[in-house]
Specification:
heterodimer; A: about 350 residues; alpha+beta; Rossmann fold; OB fold (Dihydrolipoamide Acetyltransferase, E2P); 2 domains; 6-stranded mixed β-sheet; about 35% strand; B: about 300 residues; about 5% strand; globular
Chain lengths: ~350, ~300
Amino acid sequence: MAPFIRIQNISKKYGKLLAVDNVSFNLEKGELFSLLGPSGCGKTTLLRILAGFEITTEGYVEIDGQDMVDVDPADRPVNIMFQNYALFPHMSVSNNIGYGLKRASLPDNEIKSRVSELLELVHLNGMGERKPSTLSGGQRQRVALARALARRPKLLLLDEPLAALDKKLRSETQFELCKIQEQLGTTFVVVTHDQEEAMTLSTRIGVMNNGKLVQVGTPNEIYEQPQTTFVADFVGEISFIEVTVKEQKGPYWLMQGAVPIHVSTGAKLRINQKVNLALRPEKISLTSKSTGKINEFPVKVIDWAFYGAGTQYRVVGPGGINLKLYESHNIPSKSNARQPETGFINFSPDSIIILER
Amino acid sequence: MNYFFQKFGRILVIWLPLGWLLLFFMFPLVEMINVSFSEARRAVPPYIPAFQIGSGGFTFSPVLDNYLLIYEYWEDYLWPAINSIRLAFFSTLYCLLFAYPMAWWIARSNKSIQHILLILVLMPFWTSSLLRMYALIGLLNPNGFINDVLIWAGITVTPIQMMQTDFSIYSGMILTYLPLMILPLYASLVRLDVSIIEAAADLGAKKWDIFRTIVLPLSIPGIVAGSLLVFIPAVGEFVIPALLGGPEQLMLGKVIWTEFFRNRDWPVAAAIAIILIAIIILPIVYARYQDRERIS
C-alpha cells in the first residue's frame, strides 16, 4: 500500500542558501510526526512547503495519492496552525472558526453546527461571540486549532503550537492536543525546537539539522539509539567519551581512552577504530565507596543541582573525563545534605551508545 | 538651574505649545465667530465688533443679520456648498482608489526600499503648490505638452479641451492630496501581519476574498484617517478650482473670497466660513462615533 503522505527528495534554495536539503519521508494516516531541530534548520520552511506557501526547488509532495506540486494553498487538503495563531482580529471566535467553511460555500446552518461542534471539541463553549483580543493565550491557541481543523484536513501542520504558552499550560495543552489528534485521527506534522515536546507528543520524530533530515524514528529510538553525535547531543542530556577500539574480550569490546571501558554491542567494530561513546546521565550511578562493578572509576564531584525529583551531578574522572549524571530520589532527599566531594561511578556495558567519530 | 528645570521643565514643555495654540489658533477662531455676529459698516475695520473691550468698557451686541442673510439667499450659497462637497467627495474617492494599490505595494515591498518609496511619495510637497498647479496647466493647456504629443501622433487634429473641466480640477486635487491618503493607508497596511493573509489563503480564500474579508476591514482606520485628511482641506479648497476650473465652478471657498475681498463684507464671509467649519466637523464626529461603536 502506498504511504498516505509521501515527501520525496524535497529541496529548497533561497539564492545560494540551501534551506531544505533533499528531504524524504513518508507518513502513515493518523500519525503525529514531529520535525525537531534547532532554529534555522529548515523545519519551518519544510512545513511551509507542505502548506503550499513555498515552491520547492526540487522534489514533490503527494497526499493520499494526489500530487501537490501545482495545487494552491487554498485548494490543498492541508491546513496550518501558525505559531502566532494568526487569528483574524476583526472577527468573532465563531467567524474565525467558520471562515474556512464559509469559503467552501457550506450552507449557513451546517456552518453553525460544525462551529459549535468545534467549540465543544476545544472547550470554548459559549465563547463564540467573543473577539480574539479578549481571550487568554491558551484560549487563542485553541481557537487557532479549531479553525485549522474546521475544514477536516487530511494533514494538519502545527508551527510551534505550544511555544507561546507558559510551562504549566503547555503540558496540559500537550495532553489536550494528543487527545484531539487521537479522537479525529487526523495526520499531524508538528514543528518544534523543544525536544521534550517532541518526545511527549509524537508517534515519530524527524530530527533536522542544516536543512537535512538526519534521523527519523520513534521517540524511544531517537533517545536511546541516536545515530549521530548531533542527534545524541540535541535530544536530551548526554556526555561523550573519546576512545579507541582495543580488542574483543568475551561478550564485550574493550575501549581504550582515559580509562578502559567495556561495551556490549552487536555493531561491527574494527580494532583501532576511533569512536565516541555517549552516556545518558540517568544511566550512570554514583557511589561513595567502590562496588567492584564493571566500568567503575573514581571521580570528583565538581557541581550539582537539585531538581526536586532528582539531582544532577557534574563529575570529573581520570584524564579529565567530564560526565553529567542524574540520580533520582527514590527516597525523600535531605535538601541540605552535604553532597559527596569524591566517589565512584559505574555504568552498564549495555547502556553505552557508540557513535562514529 | 537644574532645580529650575526639574520643577518648571514639564510645565514649560506642555504650556508653551499650548499657549501658542491658544493664541494663534483658538483666538483667531473665536475672533471669526465674533466677526460673523457683527454688523457690517463702511470703515476700517469694516464691521462693528459684536464683542469688544474699549474705552467705553465692555460691550456685547451680537446680530444675527449675517446668518439670516445667508438663510434668505440660501439658494445662492447652497449650490456652491453642494459643489464644494461634491468636489471634495470625488477628490477623496479618486485619491483613495489611486492610493490604495500604491500604499499596498509600498507596505509589501522590501523593508529597505520602503523608506525611499515613502520619500518619493512626499517629494511633490517639496515644491510650492502654486508652482505644481502651473506645471499642470502647462501640461493640460490646449497648446500644452499632452495636446502637442496627441496632435503630433495624429490621434487628434484639434486640441482636446482638458483645462477648465472636472478632469483638470481632479488632476490638481489628486496631485496635491494623494500623499495625505497614501501615508495613513500605508501605516495601517504595513501593520497587517503576513501570516493573517496566509491563514486566510490556507483556509480556502481566493485573492478577492482575502481582500474583501481580511485586508479591507483591517485597513478601515487608515481609510478613515486618509479620507478625513483629504476631504477636510478639499472642501475649503480655493486655489485649485480657481486656477484649473472653469468660471462656472462656484465653490464655497471662492464665495468666501468674493464676499471678503470684492464686497468687503467681512461678517457674511465669516458666517459662511463658520458654516463651512460645521460641515467639515460633521464627518469627523461621525467617524469618531463609528470608532467608538467598533471598539465597544
